[in-house]
Amino acid sequence: MATHNELGEKGEQLAVEFLQKKGYKILERNWRFKKAEVDIIALKDDILIPVEVKTRTSNYFGNPQDFVNQKKIQLLVEAINEYIISKDLDVEVRFDIVAIIQNKNITKIEHLEDAFLHF
User: Which residues does UniProt assign to the signal peptide (predicted)?
Assistant: First the structure.
């Protein structure tokens, strides 16, 4: 497996553990629809929360969350619409990003709630 894939999987596992400690119930991991993949779908306080996880080894080229672009957002919104329809859910939705910097010396996790409002 490529190193960046291993880093991504490790980051997703860190994000799951982080969210569970904050009381989130993890419903799905790596849920796919067409070209979109939702890293984590969680539920907390009756709010459905799709979570995009971005993991980097440094912020040299920018913060991890800076790599979520408009096309990615559009794909995630489309995927979550399908998820809600396919599961026949009646829920409020909030999109979050968990940004992780992970290297030998540090692990920094930043949770951005309602992240897509800032784009």
Answer: none
